[in-house]
Amino acid sequence: MSATIIATRPQTKAPGVLALGLARIGYETRLYFRSPDTLLFTFFFPFIMLGIFTAAFSSSGNIGTNPDGTGGVSVGAYYLPGMLAAGMLLSGVQNLAVDIAGERSDGTLKRLGGTPLSPLSYFVGKIGQVFVTAILQAALLMLVARFAFNISLPSEPEKWGTFAWVFLFGVITSAFLGIALSALPRSGRSATAVVTPVVLVLQFISGVYLQFNALPDWMQNLASIFPLKWMAQGMRSVFLPDSFAAAEQTGSWDLVWVAAALGVWLVVGLVLSRVTFRWIRRDA
Predict the structure, then answer these.
(1) Exposure winner among 44, 46, 111, 230, fewest CB in 10 A?
(2) Which residues contact 113 (CB under 8 A, 6 or more apart)?
(3) Could you give the CA distance from residue 194 to residue 181 in angstroms, rounded to a whole number?
(4) Can you tell me the mean pLDDT for 230-240?
C-alpha cells in the first residue's frame, strides 16, 4: 500500500477588518497632507480666519466689557472657540464629503470595491485620518493663539475635560456626516460646489464668524437644528468666562443639551453614512 504525501502550503491569516482599517489611517493621512488645496481650505482655514478677525477688529477693544470698561476678552480669544468648532466641521464634513465624492467619481472606490477591503475598513481609515488631522489642527491652533496672539488658555482641569468630550463627539459626528454628504455630488468636479456652500452657511449662522446672540431669533433657532451650533457652544463654554453664558440662547452653556444634540447627530450620521455609502453611484 503506497502512501501519498500531500504537500500543503501554510495558510496566511488575512488581516482583520479593524487591522486593515488601522493600516489605512497612515495612508489616508499622507494623502491628506500631500493635497495643497485640502490643506488650505480645511487644515489652515481656521488659522487664516482667526488671524483676519484678530487683525481687523482688535482696534475696537475687548468683547463683553463691563460698563466701566473693565473685563471682557480680546477679539482673538472670543473667536478662538468658533474656529476650533469650524476646524472640526471642515476636517470631517468638508474634507470627507469632497474626498470620497472625488474617489467615487474617478473610479478609486470601484477599484477598492473589488478588493478584500470592506466598507468598515474604509470608514476606519477615513475617520482615523480625520481624528489625526483634527487633533493636529486643534493643537496647532491653540499654540498659535497662545504664542502669536497672546490668548490665555483655560487652566481648570474640568474645562479640558469638557473640551475632550465636545471634541470627540464633534469630530466623530462631522466624519459620519461627511461620509453621508459625499453621496450628494454627482461627480468629483461638482463636490466642492455642493459641499462648500453648506459648510459656509452653517459657519455664519452658528456663531463661528458672527456673534450668535446678535443673530435674529429665527436664525438662532435654525442653527440649533444642526450640530455646528452645539459644537461652537461647547467650545465657548471651555474658552470663554462663565459670564459669557448669559449671551447664549437660553442664558446658560446647556452642556447637557450640547451632549444630547451631538449624540443624536452622531447616530443620524452613522445611519446615513451606512445607508448611502456605495462603491459606485446607483445611477452610474
Answers:
(1) 111
(2) 279, 280
(3) 9
(4) 97
- The alpha carbons of the chain give a radius of gyration, in whole angstroms, of 22
Query: How does 47-69 read in b/e, with b if 16+ C-beta sit within 10 Å?
Result: bebbeebbeeeeeeebbbeeeee
> pTM of the full predicted structure?
0.90
Contacts of 255 (CB under 8 A, 6+ apart): 162, 234, 237
Mutual angle of helices 119-147 and 45-57, in 10-degree steps:
30
Give the single-character DSSP code of 281. -
Average pLDDT (230-256) is: 95
> What is the rounded CA–CA span in Å between residue 120 and residue 101?
17
Q: What residues contact residue 26 under an 8 Å CB cut-off, 6+ apart?
A: none
Written as one letter, the residue type at 120 is L
Q: Are 138 and 167 in contact (CB under 8 A)?
A: yes
Please determine, for residue 263, whether its predicted confidence score (pLDDT) is greater than 90. yes
Distance CA 83, CA 132 (A): 18
